[in-house]
Structure formats: C-alpha cells, structure tokens
Amino acid sequence: MDRTKDLPAVPRTRAALFDMDGVLVDSEPFIAEAAIAMLAERYGVVATRDDFLPFLGMGENRFLCGAAEKHGVRLDVESDKSRTYELYFELIVGRLREIPGAVAFVRACRERGLATAVATSADRRKLVANLREVGLEEADFDGIVDGLQVERKKPAPDIYLEAARRLGVPAGSCLVVEDALSGVLAAKAAGMRCIAIAGSFPETALREAGADEFAENFLTLDPADFL
Question: Which residues have a catalytic role annotated?
Fold first, then answer.
C-alpha cells in the first residue's frame, strides 16, 4: 500500500529570509566591543561579552539596555546607541567578514528562483554598513525589514511575517536562517522552517528552541536542498 498519500504536504520553499548579525556577517564581536567601550566611556561600567548574550537578536535597544541594567545603569537610549554605532562603524572597517559562504548562498538562492529578504532587528544604518563591508547591497535582496519597522522585536514573529508579506510569499513557504535563540523562536512562531547557523549558541540550545536544521556555516548548504 502506498502510504505517501497519508503524509502531510510540505509547502514548497519560495523565499529565504536572513537575519543579519551572526548570519550574514560576523559582527557580534564588534558590536559587543563597541557597547563595552561605550559603557566604560559614559558610565564607568566594566562589562563583558557575556552580559550581552541573552539579548542577541532582540535589537540594539534591548541589547544595550539589557546589559546596562545588569550593572544598575539606565541608558539615554538614542544617544548611547548612536555613540555605540559610531564606535562600531570605526571597528568594522576592513575587518568585518561574511559568515563563510553567506554571500554565495544568498546569490545562489536568487539564481534558483527564491525570493530573498534580510530581516534584522538592527537599525538600517547598521544594516547598510554591514552589507557594504562584505560586498553586498540592499539591491541584492528582494526585501529589507529592519528593527525600526516593527514594534515587537524577536522572539515575536512580527519581523519575519512582515518580510513574507513584502515578498508576497505565504509564511509556510519561507525558510529562515538564524543564529540566535530569539530569532529561532521568532521564525517558528511565524510558522516557518528554520536553519540555525553556529555562533554564539550551542546546537543543542538552538534545536531546543525549534531549529529544524543546523549548520556550522553556509559552505555545507545548497539552496537546492530546500526547494
């Protein structure tokens, strides 16, 4: 008896949605370094990278404020974020690198006929600077959603749902590439398939958050495998 007819239908993948920091670019060490420098400069706080880890993927406001709160500091959010970005933009020049294989994978997705979008909790100015440093442009994607364009940040699904809406693709036909626990939770809450890229979180934690696949980087991934 052919039981394949009893299996649930899997929607065809029509779009690939990419987080940015830690997925397309190896930026997280630099933003942490910039934030640590800002806190020391303005508040005399000695912070560490671990202070920021729980807030990865949630946007710079929460990233900065969450770590500051651990040290009993209340930030002037816009001013302190602007200073952090100034330091960050200085740090990344000539140093920021793509996650191995990321640029080629994005372009291969489009060659395969997939719509592509960046959905980042960061501000647009950081997105533009990051893409430029690794040889990508906004025009390399069919859609861009930044953290200032959605009210609820990850782990809420809003940013991925908005990216799918802009591409005109059903949520169930989207593949998300993430590196943070909050991002994986957002993708799954949106009803999307999710690949987790190795980085700040171990594979076990990413799978527990709901990641469907796991990869060290893009070098082992082929868009054809997800069509």
Answer: 19, 21
